[in-house]
Amino acid sequence: MNPIVIATNNPHKIKEIHEILNGAFEVKGLKDIGCTEELPETTGTIPGNAVQKAQYVFDHYGVDCFAEDTGLEIDALNGAPGVDTAHYAGPERDALANMDLVLRQLSGREDRSARFRTVIALFLGGKLHTFEGVAEGRIAKTRSGQDGFGYDPIFMPNGYEQTFAELSSDIKNAISHRGRAMEKLKAFLTKDD
Q1: Domain containing 92: what range?
Q2: pLDDT at 193
Q3: Mean pLDDT rounded to a whole number for the chain
């Protein structure tokens, strides 16, 4: 199989995707194909942004690729930060500022239910395919754990008393939103093997 490009330069996402796919595919980041520009994310929806990014790479670089977009949806905040997850506290995309803003907004609230939603858009041979993964959970009252990235130190998946940042990468990848979407992508890519 030809290598497949993931439409990101985020080293944390690339590492996590390599771990989830467990060597089943050669995955390259945008830098590997010479793409250094910021990809558009202007649709206002998680699925729309995933498709927009994958379409951009396919159209401009002519390679099979997939893009993912992820949002944290908090019930007490009417689904926010949602599509604005990465830059919730501002354009700097500062993970600590994002988590602090969420924790302040939830201060004193009983309902801390939330979910991570990932949508993967795959352009393969010019055809679009999408895959979704969801991890239900709740927002912790304080940050906890050193692993992971983004909101991992405040997100506690259902069935666990630890945050994503406290769980081993094997456990997190097996139950996470991204892991579930990637498993669907992997199954699709290997169905004819």
Answers
A1: 4-189
A2: 53
A3: 92
CATH, residue 112: 3.90.950.10
Within the chain, strands assigned E span 4-6, 27-28, 65-74, 81-82, 113-124, 127-139, 155-157
Among candidate residues 69, 75, 100, 147, the one labeled active-site is 69
Answer whether 0.85 is exceeded by the pTM. Answer: yes
**Is 69 annotated as catalytic?**
yes
pLDDT tens by residue, 137-168? 999 999 999 988 899 999 999 999 999 999 99
The number of folded domains in the chain is 1
Residues in a beta bridge with 155? 139
- Closest C-alpha to 13, from 40, 1, 34, 31: 31
